[in-house]
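Q: Got a minute? One more chain.
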Amino acid sequence: MSKKEKDSTKTPVEVGSHRLEVIETPGEEDETCKTFVFHNEDHTLGNSLRYIIMKNPDVKFCGYSVPHPSELKINFRVQTYGKPAVDILKKGLKDLNGACEHVLRTFENSVSEFKNRNTSSEMDTS
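A: Always. Here it is, folded:
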């Protein structure tokens, strides 16, 4: 274990059935820079969330990495111009959830319309 790993502490937070850790670096009191570890996640969440968070004008930097391909976790870093990084992450997760809900509703409506159209056209040809 490296000195940096020994010096940092991890604060686990339960989020649904997943685990989220906030990596606390001793001596770094700055709430505008945080690294989060999302367990059981990969590029799907990492890239989508990074994209949503980077659209926020309060964000200076946002990036993620997958430490190793065999590990199902991502390290996610957020740096802001003044707002707490935790608040930015929460907003990003809410915004991403809203976008996913919109896509799901649009898809379900389109499938329903398609089925209705095809059902009525099958009746017309009988």
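A: The first helix runs from residue 3 to 7.
Q: Perfect, thanks.
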